Structure formats: structure tokens, C-alpha cells
């Protein structure tokens, strides 16, 4: 029997923009066990809820993660609105959907780039990120910020997107989709990519479900769970079907995300077509009294904000369960039997967002 | 690009940021901003790096990591703190696990403000850091030369 050695992976590692630490137990080049340890970027922002007013905490919620910032703000706002029984105007619901899906596009293109970098396909990395810049331009144009938008607030949205801008976005979607399909074609059909990804880090349907994985990671194993199906914001009006793959390997996880890029473009197109006129927000009166589990589908999966208020300006408890935290058990399951050289690819395949995870 | 005499390599570390500044650092290196065309490369190895770009504030667990990375980098080196969190702790400064800005642990040469810092500002910060890097290098070679001269003088004194 070969000797067992332990190789530390992270916290500072070239392939990860963020710090996570794994102790990899190896037999020769094969991983036997992976032991994760987190906490390098724990800030403790759940407790900040005691120091900020409930309307101000949206800013903190946005900064839980710089990639899915809009969706954290959305999840928090929806939770407060549910507790306070606030009805959000229709136009605000649609604008929230448009910004959510634009954020998803930017997040997925970012991930596709990092993933390509992880498997050593530098050219594809640069291509993905170039495409991503055009999404960021739209975000900056409509909200003023590239990565932190600050447009969502309790009771609605802070800004409108004018009819002219919406039409311009609609026109830009066609050439953009074409470019995305060119890019997706490389990820899905290139022989070297297939050779690198297929059969790597396989997790079956039952395991994925039992381990509580979320988002593209669980959908790649054939479980059709997507929280957008419940129809929050304007998803109920737009009609939505989750993207599902069945193989459960790194290739399937990549394919789910590529196809979700197409789905997001489609959703934005339909939202722009159907968006109604009307007010952007309602006035928030009173203070939250009660508790609620608010859930939103982020690019990485379902995020849960548990919020509890006692009728004062400050909430008494916030608990945020982010998608990457839910995906770490499945990651630990994926790594055994992988080669050491494949570890970065497998780790990236769950789209780890450590800032989210550690809050 | 007369100011750029060498190809400085960058080490990027996320201390405890929200990711916003980190992806903007990466955006600097990819098409549109593309600083790689000037030979500025993101390296994963602290022993190859000239500039430490660090985002986010200091917490209990990463204090040692940040210090270790800084100490592993060869002289001369500069530290660029990116984003308001790296400068003071920013929006998280009241969190129980945040000790403050990066300068609590290591000396910082350039502060780039913003939440999140924009790529243009980050590039600006790096250009500023390059100036400081040159100064430090000149000082080092200067002091090395001075040392050499005193040694020569002492040797000359001994032989006579």
C-alpha cells in the first residue's frame, strides 16, 4: 500500500481568487480524502444587524458577496417585505428580475473564465472575461456601479431603467447571445475540454440530493431544483424551466452554467418585452415584527436569509446560508479518487464563493 | 510608457473582502484593461512578486497569512491596499471579527479607495506603487553601493 501524505491546498493558491484551505490526503497522486477548513475571511456581518437599521442593512447585505451582490440585497429586501406585508410595485419586480439575470450573466461568464483558467485554457479565460465586460457595461449604465449596484431597497428599487435604455438592451441582446453561443460552443464541444472534464468528480443524483447541494451543482446531477420556479420577483409571470443535466461530472456542471447563460438572456428579453409602467417603490412605514426565511436563486444556488424582528428599528437576528456553504459537503465527496492535478478543476466546478460562505 | 522600466509581477490576496475588489483586480488583467500587455503579470508565488495587492480587512485567522506572504516577498516590495475595507475595514469595521485595515499588520504604500474600487483606480494605484518601487530599489542599490565603498575604503586603509 502506498504511503499517505497530506498536501495543503490554499489558503493562498494561484487558482483561487479567494482563500479556502483544503488538506488533501494523497496516496501517490490520487486524493483519498479532502478536509476543508474555512474562516479566513469571516467578518461576522450577521451581528452587524444589531448596529444598523433594517433599511440600512441592505448595503451590508449587498457586500456579503461582490459577485451576487444584487441578489443578496434582493433576498434581504424580500424577507423584510414579507414580514412587513409590503406589496412591491410591478415595475420594480420586473426591474429586479432584469438586474438579477444580468448579474447572473456576469457571474456565470466570470466563472466560465475562471474555470477555463483552472483547466489551463488561457485563451478561453480571456474570451469569457471580454464578453463579461459588455455585461458590466450594462450594469454600470443602468445602476452606476460595476459590481456593487445598490439599486435594490426595501419596498422596491432605487432607479428606473428608461424605455430608451431598455430598447437598447433588447437590441444588444441578439449579437450578445451570438457571441455567448460561440463561447459556449467551445466549452461544450471542444475535444480538449471534454477530455479534461468528462468523468471527473462524479456525484450521483441521490448523493447530490442527500448532501443538500444547491444550484447548478445539484442540477448537473439530474435534480431539478431551481428556486426561480417558485416565482419570486417577476419569474412567475415570465415562465421558467430549470436547466438540468444528468451526468453529474465537471462537464455537466459546466454545461448547466453555459445553458443558464442562454436561459438568462431569454429571461431578460421576455422581461423587457413585458415590463409594465408604474411606480418604482412604496413607502416603508413601521418596523418589522416577525420572522421569515427568505430564499432566492443565486448564480451558485439557493441563498437563505433568515430574518427576525421584534418591532424595533433593529432586527434581532439574521442568519445567512449561502450556496457555497451548502456545496462544500458535495465537494468533499467529489474529490476522492481525483488526481492531484485535477483538484483545482474539481474545486472550481462548484463555483466556490468564499466571501459568501464565511460572511 | 516611459515610467515602466521593468515588468513588475503582482501577488493578489483576498484578506476578507466581499469579492468585489478581487474581481476588479482580475478585470485589470483581462481584455479591456489588460495590463498584461505591459508585462504586469499576476503570479501565485510570493517569491516572484514585486507588488502585493491586498483587498479586505484583517481578521484573526488571516493575520498570520498576510504577514507570512509579505515576509516571503523579496525586497524591494510595495503593498497596495485595494478598497475601503483594506484601508480601514470599511463597512465591516464594526464587525466583531475585523481588526481593521491591512496596515494593522504590514506597512502599506498605496491606498486605493472605493467600494468596490474601479479598475481604473486600481491601475492608477499600481502606477503610483511602481514609482515607490523604483525609489526603494534606488535606495537599496544606493545603500549597497555606499556599503561597498566603505568596505573598499576600509580594505584600502588596512593594506597601507
Topology (SSEs and partners):
The complex is a heterodimer of chains A (359) and B (160).
Chain A lengths: L3 E6 L11 E7 L2 E8 L19 H6 L6 H16 L5 H29 L3 H22 L8 E2 L2 E2 L5 H27 L1 H7 L7 H6 L4 H5 L15 H4 L11 H25 L14 E10 L2 E10 L4 E7 L1 H12 L8 H7 L4 H5 L1
Antiparallel strand pairs in A: 1-2, 2-3, 4-5, 6-7, 7-8
Chain B lengths: L8 E6 L5 H10 L11 E3 L7 E5 L2 E2 L2 H11 L5 E5 L1 H5 L9 E3 L9 E3 L6 H41 L1
Parallel strand pairs in B: 1-2, 1-3, 3-5, 5-7
Antiparallel strand pairs in B: 4-6
Helix pairs in contact in B: 1-4
Largest sheet of chain B, order of strands side by side?
2-1-3-5-7
Could you tell me which chain pair has the largest interface and how many residues each side has? Answer: A-B, 43 and 39 residues
Oligomer category: heterodimer
Topology pattern of chain B, helix = H, strand = E: EHEEEHEHEEH
Radius of gyration of chain B: 18 Å
Describe the biggest sheet of chain A?
3 strands, antiparallel
What number of domains of chain A?
Answer: 1
Can you tell me the CATH class of chain B? Alpha Beta
CATH class of chain A: Mainly Alpha
Would you mind describing this structure in some detail?
The complex is a heterodimer of chains A (359) and B (160). Chain A has 359 residues and is of the alpha+beta class. Chain A has a single domain, classed as Cytochrome-c3 Hydrogenase, chain B. In chain A, the strands form three sheets. Chain A has a three-stranded antiparallel sheet with strand order 1-2-3. A three-stranded antiparallel sheet of chain A has the order 6-7-8. A two-stranded antiparallel ribbon of chain A has the order 4-5. In chain A, α3 runs antiparallel to α12. The radius of gyration of chain B is 18 Å and the shape is globular. Chain B has 160 residues and is α/β, with parallel strands linked by helices. Chain B has a single domain, classed as Rossmann fold (3-Layer(aba) Sandwich). In chain B, the strands form two sheets. Chain B has a five-stranded parallel sheet with strand order 2-1-3-5-7. A two-stranded antiparallel sheet of chain B has the order 4-6. In chain B, α1 crosses α4. Chain B is built from four helices and seven strands. Helix content of chain B is 42%, strand content 17%. The chains are: A alpha+beta (359), B alpha/beta (160). Chains A and B meet through α4 and α13 of A and β1, α1 and α2 of B.
